[in-house]
Amino acid sequence: MDIYKLLSRSTKLAQNSRTTPAQQSLPSSGQNANPQLFGHEEVKEMAGELVNGNLSENGNTVLGKRKRRGKGKIVDVVEELPPELDFFGERGGKKKGKKGGVGNGASETGGLGNGAVAGGEDGQEEEDERRLDEEECKAILRSHKLKVTVLSESNPPLPGNEKVKRKKKSKDNILPPLSSSKPKLQIYPQPLTSLTQLRTRYGISKRLAENIAYQGYKLPTEVQLAALPLLMGESGRSREQHKDIDLLAVAPTGSGKTLAFLIPVLDTLFKDKKMDQETEPQAIIVAPTRELANQIVNEGRKLVENTGIRISLVRKGMSVGKRDVDVLDLRGERDEDAESSSDDGEQSSAQKASKVQKPGYVVKSHVLVSTPLTLLHAIENLDGTTTSLPSVRFLVLDEADVLLDPLFRDQTLSIWNACSNPDLRTSLWSATMGSSIESLALEHILKNRKESTNTASIIRLVVGLKDTALPNITHILTYAATETGKLLALRQLLHPTAPKTDSSGRKSLRPPFLVFTQTIDRAKALHAELKYDIPPEAGGSSRIAALHSDMSETARSKVMTSFRRGEIWVIITTDLLARGIDFRGLNGVVNYDVPTSAAAYVHRVGRTGRAGREGGVAVTLYTKDDVPHVKPVANVIAASEKLRGVGGGDGEGQSSVKQWLLDALPTPSKRDKQELKRKGVESRRAGTKTARISTKSKLNRGLGAQKKQPGSQSKGVKSMDLKEEEFGGFSD
Ligand SMILES: Nc1ncnc2c1ncn2[C@@H]1O[C@H](COP(=O)(O)OP(=O)(O)OP(=O)(O)O)[C@@H](O)[C@H]1O
Fold first, then answer.
1. How are beta strands 283-286 and 367-370 bridged, if at all?
2. Compositional bias (Acidic residues) spans (predicted)?
3. CA distances from 709 to 431, 703, 715 (A)
4. Chain-wide mean pLDDT for the chain?
5. Where are the beta strands (DSSP E) in 320-424?
6. How many whole angstroms separate alpha carbon 380 and alpha carbon 376?
7. Which residues are CB-neighbours of 280 under 8 A, at least 6 positions away?
């Protein structure tokens, strides 16, 4: 089995589809036929009306009925391993795979109106072009659980919103600015039913359309289905009107938000045709961690191939904008950029970092991707003031709720304020967004507009239920009583002969997986404990690695690359990897320490089950110390299981959270929740005896402590501080 092909985000879907040999009922079995999470049955019904029941060659309806695991024919060409080395499980003999072979994307149609790319069914393009009436739009948006709300209206009104506008107009003449007491208006934009419509309906550049198709993307995910029409200017709107929206998008983890924010930005820049002359940045994308920023750069580079658009990661020591420093042009980086868009992007980026970390280097790229503090340093003048960035027309905040959390808030707002272009278009994206963060974002958008003529609408797009974990993964909440119990449970998961299902018949977790701990010190300690648990015949200690923000940039990149290549099977990490990171074939996650908020749970477990893939498993271990805090997590699991139709907390089916447990768990107060989010479970943070991760005897620990160098204690304390610029977990 070529693990690299399974894990690597960079591997092209279309290529993957031709080469992936394994067809297992695990997420690592490759590409899902349908990246959408909702609406398969309803949309199938509509198919009858819209395309007269057109069926694709492989028997899928063109509206993308989702292929469920286990329904298909038996496909497995994987070489057998002895059971003691079978860490990835589910092998040895023929297993059920997805019908038609998951990952044969090149031949699959799989979705509503995806004819042109997927093989060009007759009349499909015409069908793509037919403007749906309001009822049809409503039906599609509802079936995909999409809600589009106008938070602040532009003048003139958005298409699809004329009626409401007229009604209001007769009273007030113009809609008042946003106010929490005013009712919000829901609109129903024309949904994007196929990614080919990006070209046929919105006229995106041929290059960009080709690059999208080359990645194997055909059917839009839910967030793309609604966000792209909104950001590309809605059907029938002029190019100028494209600029009229600021967007707050809340969509599940792994639902393709990256593509949704990149395509409109890149297409606008490409169409401007000034790429060769422009030296100032046109778009800024901010993400909370270096790993995520790097990933966005790599995704972007695949889309801009042969377009002339340059997209770069801002690194320490770089400068952005004209400043009072010696200006050294970094345009030469372009050649290196091309290199790092390869599958080894992260490693090559890291190797190059040393070449460019000289003060005063100015990045000459059209699109800059950065963590907040690195970018802030890059635009800071010697006197401490911030360089204004009037050339920036697009500001994208990925994982916006973290970027506007107190941890990063000042940095993010300083960057936002530096983007002084009066026509700045802002979009904020996350899988979770609390109402306080939403209000803060709105306030800031409106405040920045006070002195400008900017009249853009502010739109909120919500996919599914807000702040809910993915319905397509299995959640397992296990009481382990003590720290030792947790260690034992994790060791069992690592054991190659561990049962493939648990006592309730639920699928067990198999590597590759991520293990999340509360602090850097705990990640280190757990790694030290488990390092030798995988036998040397299976690769031994090289199969398990730690990754946290106390490590050097190079070491972090190396672990990421090795994991994507399948050389490392288990990463023990902090919340550093909880947000945005996309390992395509991850089988699951283990919350070794209970996440410190419901949102943290949603993001951590969202590392698996990406793009609609089924089979991911999320195991959460909790001890006596967690009992006062675990209810919010249990509630998220219950809601997700309800969506999936497995019990919903009523004790039926295979639900992990029974109603009696929900009733028995104490409800933490708002204050308790805030404290937990800020500090984590106190005993773990303080490293008290009961919370220590160690199987060493007291005597051995004492001997170890004596050997410690003077000053080593302060290092431990340092690693708990938020000294690093990136998000390393709220509690690190
Ligand atoms: N239209 C599509 N068809 C198939 N796969 C897609 C499509 N759009 C995105 N993907 C894939 O889905 C995966 C997740 O995408 P992405 O990382 O953008 O998710 P996200 O919504 O940003 O997740 P998170 O909230 O965790 O950051 C990626 O592997 C991407 O290649």
1. parallel
2. 335-346
3. 44, 13, 11
4. 74
5. 328-329, 361-362, 367-370, 394-398
6. 6
7. 321, 389, 391, 392
Helices (H), 566-656: 598-605, 631-644
Pairing label, strands 394-398, 283-286: parallel
**Ligand 1 contacts CB of residue 105 (under 6 A):** no
The complex scores an ipTM of 0.99
- Closest residue by Cα to atom 22, ligand 1, is 257
Q: Which of 221, 583, 589 to mutate to test the pocket of ligand 1 (most atoms within 8 A of CB)?
A: 221
Contacts of 567 (CB under 8 A, 6+ apart): 3, 539, 542, 543
User: Tell me, what's the pLDDT at 653?
Assistant: 55
Q: What is the pLDDT of residues 658-685, one digit of tens each?
A: 889 999 999 999 888 888 888 888 778 7
Residue 538 Cα to ligand 1 midpoint, Å, equals: 31
The DSSP result for 103-128, as a single string, is: T-TTT---STT-HHHHT--TTHHHHH
Q: How many CA atoms lie within 13 A of 415 on its CB side?
A: 29
Q: Max Cα separation, the chain?
A: 82
Single out the residue of 518, 489, 524, 529 nearest to residue 626, CA to CA: 518
Q: For residues 223 and 429, what is the distance between their CA atoms, to the nearest angstrom? A: 10
Q: What is the pTM of this model?
A: 0.78
**200 in Cβ contact with 235 (< 8 Å):** no
User: How far apart are the CA of 253 and the centre of ligand 1, in A?
Assistant: 8
